[in-house]
Amino acid sequence: MGTDQISIEDVASLAEAPLIVPQEELGQGCIRYFGMKDLLNFVQCFPNFQRMLQTPHWYEKWIVLLEWYFQAIPRASGRRRNVLLPVVANALGTLLENLARIILVEEGTFSNNQFNELSLKGRINELLNRLGISGDNSVVDHFVTIRNNSTHAKSTSMSLTEMQQWEIVQKAVQWVDEVVLWRLGYGGQYRERNLQSIQSIQPRYDLSQRDPSW
Fold first, then answer.
1. 186: left (phi over 0), alpha (psi -120 to 50) or beta
2. pLDDT digit string, tens, across residues 24-53
3. Which of 7, 56, 142, 143 has the most CB atoms less than 10 A away?
């Protein structure tokens, strides 16, 4: 076969590349079903996104952040279906820690030493506080336990059923959604992460806490 020809096997291997995301996976996004006004509101954030990617910390991390994000979204069907709670919890824990470092250190007032002294629970709580989100403390506690149980050989006992643990994981996915939407300045409705239904909610975050230069 000549070098200018592409085999079906080559195409198949490309389609399974980790960074290629099928359309059905993108369909699990957070601005779905909620009307043209919300879509237009989101599109108006594109210039903010362009400026965001011009900063070294976002430019270097964005692709890998997306890869962790898609690993963390349990999908009903499609390639790389996630059915293992430990895999999802670990991806989310890594993702949230990286977002916390960008928001709190690279774009905030925390020093590296201050950030490194925080536990995962502290990092998530400080991240949510930065966004102006409060009232998720017990959920953060449960998520950190789930993530630690997924990471370490010694596990902490939990009173939650597996379904309840998946619901907690969904809330952690929502935190990721909210960090990015807040950073972009999105003011419309977005998806409330829930295993039972797809509902829209108004922003819980405080857009006035964003850096005006963004």
1. beta
2. 555 567 887 677 888 889 999 999 999 999
3. 143
